[in-house]
Write a structure and sequence with these properties.
single chain; Elongation Factor Tu (Ef-tu), domain 3; Rossmann fold; Ubiquitin-like (UB roll); 3 domains; six-stranded antiparallel β-sheet; five-stranded parallel β-sheet; 7 helices
């Protein structure tokens, strides 16, 4: 599915911590932007060949703007640094229409929102929505220190400020995150939403399962990933179903590398197995899933894979391209 591009103007660029910038994007003609739901993100086309996903963090009831928070990642592959250094107020940029791979279950009796660092952005949007609905929820926000807490003043001035707890690694013990306490009392009517760095998110997911949370009640979105290394050093082939052509993939190449080298265009964005842009149907063969996007149940079906990072356990993969 092609994600329609929109031309927007950067109406505001504000440093909200020493390394997080808030961007406000508006329609170039002052029209309403396409609606979005809590947990949605947009593709930002920073320049040719450089596209990144950023979660929308403003209230979904707003139609006149999109807000995104961008952390300056010192190990950036170019996206966050370009956003910080090159994108200025008044610039026109292209974005994709909002997409949601991290939807909020608004019918839940209780919601627990758990953010690590810049992972606050989609959860802030969820908190806005749940507050508007009058739903029962708590937002738990973990950071290294108080001065690293993006949106802290906004949260403290919000209608849901009493629903938010802050935790800091450098704080006294009573202000540190107690995961056993936060995740206690799981139930079929209680949903957990997690967003943050890979290590944080993996730790919380594993602990939630250990405490008794059901898989279907745990929702998550990685905020950038460190793609696992394959333990296999095998060569394999991919077959393009529409043409029948075969291509070899070496241990040093990704499937996307091979496809692009042979002028076969596939949509790519994060290149880390996080966003789902390159998700492709598998008609035959067994993928080696190395992404953060598919659930364990989806992986077990072996009928789709992310081409940017995943590989093959079989000698041949037939792709629906």
């Amino acid at each position: 599915m092609i994600n329609k591009h929109l031309r927007v103007c950067v109406a505001k660029k504000e440093w909200i911590t020493s390394d997080v910038v808030l961007f406000e994007l508006v329609d170039v003609n002052g029209e309403n932007l396409p609606p979005f739901t809590a947990g949605a993100h947009i593709d930002v086309h920073i320049r040719d060949g450089l596209t990144r996903q950023y979660s929308l963090c403003n209230n979904p009831s707003e139609t006149h703007r999109y807000e995104i928070g961008v952390l300056r990642d010192h190990q950036s592959r170019g996206g966050s640094i370009a956003m910080h250094d090159d994108v200025m107020v008044g610039d026109l940029i292209d974005i994709g229409e909002p997409r949601n791979a991290f939807p909020l279950q608004t019918s839940a009796e209780e919601s627990v929102l758990l953010a690590g660092g810049i992972g606050i952005t989609p959860l802030l949007c969820m908190a806005e929505r749940l507050s508007d609905l009058g739903s029962h929820f708590q937002l738990h926000y973990c950071n290294r220190s108080c001065d690293r807490s993006a949106f802290k003043s906004r949260i403290e001035a919000s209608s849901f400020a009493d629903n938010v707890l802050f935790y800091y690694d450098d704080a006294p013990d009573e202000q540190k995150f107690d995961i056993e306490k936060v995740l206690s009392r799981p139930s079929a009517y209680k949903h957990l939403y997690i967003c943050g760095p890979t290590g944080f998110l993996t730790f919380v997911r594993e602990k939630a399962k250990e405490i008794g949370w059901a898989d279907q009640n745990i929702h998550f979105e990685y905020f950038g990933g460190n793609t696992p290394e394959s333990e296999n050093t095998n060569h394999f082939q991919i077959k393009i179903a529409s043409s029948g052509k075969l291509y070899n993939v070496s241990p040093e190449e990704t499937i996307v590398d091979v496809l692009l080298a042979n002028s076969i265009k596939v949509p790519i964005s994060c290149e880390q197995g996080v966003c789902g842009t390159c998700l492709t149907r598998v008609l035959d063969g067994v993928p080696e899933h190395l992404d953060f996007y598919l659930s364990e149940e989806e992986r077990a079906l072996n009928n789709q894979m992310l081409l940017c990072c995943s590989r093959s356990l079989s000698s041949l993969l037939v792709l629906d391209l």
